[in-house]
Amino acid sequence: MYRNLLLALTIASLFLVSPGHAQQKFSSITGPLDVKPVQSGAQVNVPFITWGGDAATFFANGGLDTTPDSIYGKSGLKLKLTPGDDFVQQVKDYMGGKSPFLRGTFRMLGQASEVIGKDPRTKPVVILQLSWSAGDHIVSREGFKTLNDLKRDGKKVRIACQQGGPHVGLLYDALAAAQLTNKDVEIVFVEDLTGANGAAEKFRKDPTIDACCVITPDMIGLTGGVDSAGTGAEGTVEGAHVLVSTQNMSRSIADVYAVRSDWYNAHKEEVEKFVVGYLKATVEVKKMRDDFEKTQRMSPEYRKLLTTCQKIFGEEVLPTLEVDAHGLLLDCNFVGLPGQIAFFKQSGNLSGFDAKMKAALDLATNWGYAGARMGFEPVNFDYKKVASSAGVPYAEPQKIVKGESLTEFPGDDLDTGTIVSFTISFEPNQTDFSVDRYGAEFDRALQSASTFGGAAVVIRGHSDPTKTLVQLIKAGLEKGVIRRTGQQGNYRYFINTKQGTQELDLSQTGAMVELIKSGAFEGAADSPLQTMQAALNLSQARAEQVKQAIINYAEQRDINVNLSQLQPLGAGISDPVISKPSNMAEAKQNMRVEFRIVKVNPEELSETDFDF
After folding, report:
1. Which of 285, 388, 394, 487 is the most exposed place for a label (fewest CB within 10 A)?
2. What value does the mean pLDDT take over residues 10-21?
3. Which helix (H) or strand (E) holds 566?
């Protein structure tokens, strides 16, 4: 249930700017740093941060100091795990040779990229992805339904976010999903991740703050739960709800380890042992965690690990083992060996190393952390050898993952679960969706599917209601069910019901659909029910055609895609942009396919479904 809690205690001193002001360059925060050789000694200093993924490091090491009977001890490593929540101090130790390792999220490395990547000796080699986060959230006030609502006319939406922490990347991805940037909103930077100077407290006390980036405990405190809305009772904020979560945006925050280039080149064997040991530990930790979650019976080994986490992170951070320490691990999606192969080796992975590095450097330069783009190197392991050494099965991840499309979404309707949406239009009777015309939209859909690994991409086809409405009127007049008054261009229609004569409002699409379904207009020359069904079939066919066009596009460009995330859905005439078009231009606005990124029941979809 916790994400980098201790990070909150130290980040405040790292980014010495007033809340709401622009970001300083990382180099101005650290000050001038001399590059020194990595210190030699009996032990290698390896930083950790307060996160569930680091529990596997503790397990592999047998604690903070390597024990002889631990995974790392048996492989001949001697490590001293040191607190690393103070990321600026991590960078200083890294540059000064106290530790060859950096531990953080990929975006945190990106924020420091101009400092750590300038000298060839310290240019980072990213050696391991630990996990993806499922414990970070953007909470908003009532009135914000999707990420599209973060752009409003007249007044910028104000979002509270910790300066320099892991949520900067989350916010970057959330804005990008709606095709927005930091210039479209007002980011109110706060000092801490949580607590009195954190984003949640700023949101609670300042009603001008529209949204905030928070960890799970703060999210629960504001909303009452990930699928709840605050009532104002028990400390919650009335109307506050989760706008987006890494439970759905499951490939936003990537936790990694990196090492200095000079040290990597001189110690490749030790680096490989470190990664092998971590992957071996991950298998055991995941099994212990999942067994406890299923049975609620804690094994002695798992209790020992959670007690170690509680001791290292502090009881103020993890008051209980069963809820807090276990919850810390539940929020962590360990990627294991398949994740390493996908992240470092697999071409076409829109959440892989190259894509994440580009996004990290885009953020660093566009948001003011760095003035130049200075990237990192990916490790180049033989993962068949790594698999053999770790004792885990080796399998090449698939590029096109097949599976049954999801059919259930949380909430009462599709609108309830929509996170973000965008639309493409087409011509009447159009069946071809060419790359030349729709390539940008296909790219956006595929990137959304990758970033929102815990969500469905609903491809929703729509049809224009004009022909159905015309036939409704004709059939009603022919059968005497409808009466018309007025002149052409200004007609009024009335319908006879059991309650008497009522005026018919053709712009109320839902009511018109129900009238047609009643069968009261059947038997005339033209059947509005058949026309409405044909429109539904057409919208479903168009959604299917767009899905296939996306699949073809992904295959031609060697882009990964999980077919179970892509769900075509026909809406027919039920949700028009203009319910009663007056000309062809208005009718064409209804002829569209809408892409919706939609929350799904976590029991229907798990992170293991997306290890491709």
Report:
1. 487
2. 41
3. strand 566-572
